[in-house]
Specification:
Elements lengths: L5 E5 H11 L4 E11 L4 E6 L10 E10 L9 H4 L4 E8 L2 E10 L2 E10 L15 H5 L2 E5 L3 H13 L3 E5 L23 H12 L4 E5 L7 H8 L4 E4 L4 H13 L4 E6 L5 E7 L7 H4 L2 H5 L8 H7 L6 H5 L6 H19 L18 E5 L25 E3 L11 H11 L4
Parallel strand pairs: 1-3, 1-7, 4-5, 8-9, 8-11, 9-10, 11-12
Antiparallel strand pairs: 2-3, 2-4, 5-6, 6-7, 12-13, 13-14, 14-15
Helix pairs in contact: 4-5, 4-12, 6-7
């Protein structure tokens, strides 16, 4: 190799290990390591650190913390049982790190790059997003499929401090073309797979995973969502969305819901602020639901719910679409989520409050189905056309079975309508 290998270690772990040495002459800590790019790059983490990198080849590593050391030549006992040696010491209260890679009988010096687990990864968003505000916030994503996984990753990248992931399903081959995870996660629970992905984007994020069937166990869902600042309903059936809606209302938590229509011809987004605006049931009324075929999250659900009637037409109502069809829905939900979570904390994102006034937004990917009568995109803006967001002004229904009583209970707390 022409250039020296690079070894990435966590700054917080370096500082903690230096403190842990205390008065000891030396401490040795086993570490997890990955070799990438043919030995040009190594990622090293103390054994109790975050497991954030699934790529590369596993390697044995040891972190040695001692007072003064300039070379690894004296560590004959380490050569037999480690591939990577990271040596830490302090000089004038400043940490100094050196690394060596075993190649045959030789130790090759490597450059060490300390990286922070928190803070700097979101530095380029400073001003637009107040990272200290978001770090103290929490959000739950219910449904970790194509849209939910994308939203969860975006929130972790933005610096949201705690994320709760709720999903009972496993990642199947048919999910890969649209999901944030890849082939290496096939067969895993979606929540667990995405949790690892989030830690790779933001090692400081606190992730809780719940394998819950939300339709059958709303009590477990309520326990999982208790205390979060925002709920995102990214499930893919009417039944599950209405359960999340009711739990969110009962807990008085602001919620966002996204829906991709059959064959992904379009979709919509609903924002629910308990006691302030409409809830999901106010928007998706019984009349609305009767006017279209029932949605199923997959063909197995269609057969389970209505085995005698799970025809080819039912299977056609299973939501499918390209990742690019789902992306606009996920992007608007992410934008609304960051707006809600950063509200009152400063930052330029709050300027969106003047534009995102609606609680219901509609998007069309193609002029098909319910959008067949829309005008061609062209250059006219007097009528709806595809690939543009449209906000609609909707009011809360005071006779709504889901939020009517809830709104009456909470009007005083929320100070009435905006």
């Amino acid at each position: 190799m022409s250039a020296r290998p690079r070894v990435f270690v966590y700054r917080e772990q370096i500082e903690e290990l230096l403190r842990a040495r205390g008065r000891e002459a030396e401490i040795r800590v086993p570490a997890a390591a990955r070799e990438l790019d043919g030995g040009e790059v190594f990622h090293v983490s103390a054994a109790d650190g975050p497991n954030i990198h699934s790529a590369g080849s596993p390697r044995r590593a040891t972190i040695v913390v001692r007072g003064l050391i300039d070379t690894a030549g004296g560590d004959q006992d380490l050569r037999a049982d480690t591939d990577i040696l990271v040596v830490l010491r302090e000089r004038d209260s400043e940490p100094i790190a050196k690394a060596y890679i075993a190649q045959g009988d030789n130790w090759i010096p490597a450059d060490v790059t300390p990286v922070p687990m928190r803070g700097e990864s979101a530095a380029r968003s400073s001003g637009l997003l107040e990272s200290t505000v978001l770090a103290a916030k929490s959000a739950a994503v219910v449904g970790i499929g194509s849209g939910g996984s994308t939203i969860a990753v975006a929130l972790a990248q933005a610096g949201v401090g705690r994320l709760v992931l709720v999903d009972r399903d496993r990642l199947e081959i048919g999910n890969i073309s649209r999901h944030a995870c890849g082939f290496g996660d096939l067969g895993r629970r979606k929540g667990a797979a995405v949790a690892d992905l989030l830690r790779g984007k933001n090692p400081a994020v606190d992730v809780a995973v719940h394998d819950i069937d939300v339709v059958r166990d709303s009590a477990a869902l309520s326990r999982a969502l208790e205390g979060v600042d925002l709920v995102i309903g990214a499930t893919d059936s009417d039944a599950s969305r209405f359960v999340v809606n009711q739990v969110g209302l009962d807990l008085s938590i602001t919620a966002l819901y996204g829906r991709v229509l059959t064959a992904a011809v379009g979709g919509d987004v609903v924002r629910v602020r308990p006691g302030v605006g409409p809830c999901l049931a106010c928007v998706y009324t019984e009349r609305f639901l009767v006017s279209r075929p029932r949605e199923y999250s997959n063909s197995a659900e269609a057969a389970e719910v209505s085995p005698a009637y799970a025809t080819d037409a039912d299977r056609a109502c299973v939501q499918v679409g390209l990742a690019s069809d789902i992306a606009p829905i996920a992007q608007l939900i992410t934008k609304l989520a960051l707006l809600e979570l950063s509200r009152g904390g400063g930052g330029h994102l709050e300027a969106l409050d003047e534009d995102l006034l609606s609680d219901f937004y509609v998007w069309a990917n193609r002029r098909e189905g319910m959008y067949e009568g829309w005008q061609r995109m062209g250059f006219s803006y007097d009528k709806p056309s595809i690939l543009r967001w449209y906000g609609a002004e909707l009011e809360r229904r005071h006779d709504c079975a889901a939020c009517g009583a809830s709104s009456a209970r909470t009007t005083g707390f929320f100070g009435g309508a905006r």
